[in-house]
Design goal:
single chain, 524 residues, mainly alpha, D-Maltodextrin-Binding Protein, domain 2, five-stranded mixed beta sheet
Amino acid sequence: MRYVAGAALVLVALGLRLPYIGLIPRFTDETDAVVLALSVARGEQLPLVDTDAYIGSGFIYILAAVLALLGPDPVLPRHVVLGMGILSLGAVALLGHELFLWMAYRVGGADAEGAGVGRAALATGFLAALFVIISPVHIVMNSRVAWSHATTPLFTTVGLWLVARAIRTAHGPSLALAGFCLGVALQTHPTVVALLPGCAVWVVWHARGRIDRRWLAIAATLGVLGAANLVAYNIQTGFGSLHAALATTGAYQAQQAEPTDYVGSLGLELGGLARLLTGAVGQRRGDIVPLTRPDVLVGAMLAAATLAYTVRRGPSLIPAVVIPFLLVAPMLNAKYAPLLNGRYLMPIAIVVWAVAAALLVRAWRSEHGPTWPRRLALGVVVAFLLGAPLASFVDFTRAALASGENRPYFDLTARIRGAVRPGERVLVDLDLGGERFASGRRGIGTVEYLLIMDPEPPAVLTGSAVDLLEALDAQRGGALLVLLPDARRTIEARFALQAIEPAPVNQRQRIDNAGLYRLRRAPR
């Protein structure tokens, strides 16, 4: 029966994640990571870090292996993330199962297993996984976008499950494997560092007299091994990851309309967690749903209740991990809109869902007070916790499809493929995408990315109008220009352009107004 239930959950998860995986959300700077992975697959470089120096290159090598095996495809990396997102659901189920056992043994003693605890723990795991399955942020971000950070919850959840299991069962090998998983998690994104101190202190305190100290040393060693490439990079560069992270944090702060102090960032973080827990994502990326909306208030109460319970009655691993994370993360970041930045809080949200599932199952099994009113109330709570995120996800998906998301980019790329001649260079207007405003670096725009991922890609240059003028001055051979109205006007001041298809009448700087051009004659 458990296998049937597990298979059903996987099918539901795939049914929510597979449709529109290439269209929603719009391609971000994941394109940079995928192009780097393609370079690795071709044997052109072997990086120690991702496109951002504060992230290790482990995920890049996973993508590279898949691209080398199956060939370039613009949506394939998202399927890799989908697979890792599905695996994370199993990790969530294991964590929920383990946390219920912690609570049962804390309350019922060593003979609690005989009182149906095993079945209840299994139900807890399934319910915890279901909370994650219907999370809009987990669907859209952690199961689609080809970022290293999208995979962080997989490794943090497995690591925390193994830590809890190791201490409960006094099993040293589980602790060692937990160290490795948390080390890998650290290289997926630096925010994991906020999880580690509390977790380490908790392990050292509870391992006394239960686990041989040698396993602690092995776990620490494997943790370093899990992030070995990131460690090597920082040794070579004098903490280059730290400098890059600080620079990005400064850039994020500069993007804010008003400077945000620590207290303000903490408030944004807690509000973001409340929205994430009940899927209040709005209709567009970056939407901030008001804190007074009922589902957000329920999310806040859910987080507060689960944390308060674990502080008073355990498992104490949860507050030891969650509280330091919530206090440290605002020092690094003030961006917590559920999409796209709910990813920063997803490892913590998963822990809250797992504890909430354990508490709901315990309340369902309780023998105190009348049974049917309590179970009816619990059924209403669970229905709301599942229904609100699903409704939000459907609302967001409809709005995203109406806006087009990636469809205009695929359509424009198809037009380019139909027009480009053999050996012809494609010059792409930078305003179609490519400038990374957070870091200031030049990235791979969506149109350029789709062309690069062709089996036989043309030579592509993405640049501003000035960059394209310089390229045309030095151009030998033919060139196909892909221009929005502003760049077209700038280039026409020096070159006569021939429209390959009817030129856009609308002069707005939008992708559906991009035109394809060739030079008509020599420069004026």
